[in-house]
Amino acid sequence: MAASAEFKEQVRRAFAAIQPGQRYVFRRTFTEGDMALFCGLTGDYNPYHLDETFARASWYGRRILPGLLTGSMITHIGGLLGFVATEMHFRYLKAVYPGETVTCTVTFAEKDEEQRLLSAQASFVNQDGVEVLQAWFKGFPTFIRLQAEPSP
User: Fold this and answer.
1) How far is CA 81 from CA 50, 75, 85, 145, in A?
2) Are strands 84-92 and 101-112 parallel, antiparallel or unpaired?
3) In angstroms, rounded to a whole number, what is the distance separating the alpha carbons of residues 120 and 99?
4) 58 is in which domain, residue-wise?
5) Which of 92, 103, 137, 149 gets the most CB atoms within 10 Å of its CB?
6) 6 assigned to some structural domain
7) What is the pairing mode between strands 131-140 and 117-126?
8) CB atoms within 10 A of CB 115
9) How many domains, the chain?
10) CATH number of the domain within which 119 lies
């Protein structure tokens, strides 16, 4: 099925609107409910997430969030940009625990006019200022409903 001319124009405008250096920020506190829903939805029944006795005996000392639950914060920002990801990469640096607050900052780094792709990086920092996760991704926006953060 072919996209309409109006949709193609909307995608063109969305791509033109995002420039390298633009930043978007999302912060949230992860709850026990978030972890239970994510594990149930994805089938991630890892004992590090669900078994308190197992996790207490591990080097973490308690249950940890699934890494992709934390990483999914970029989909909140991406969803508000109508962003279609073509690739994603994650580097997990520190565990995140239920009850912790994480701030995700997405910064667009490169714009490939020929392929019509944007490259971005994301940094995830906990409430103590410790970076817990890094991500890199590419794709294209289609419908922007989120304003970029002011330049630092």
Assistant:
1) 33, 9, 11, 6
2) unpaired
3) 28
4) 22-140
5) 137
6) no
7) antiparallel
8) 10
9) 1
10) 3.10.129.10
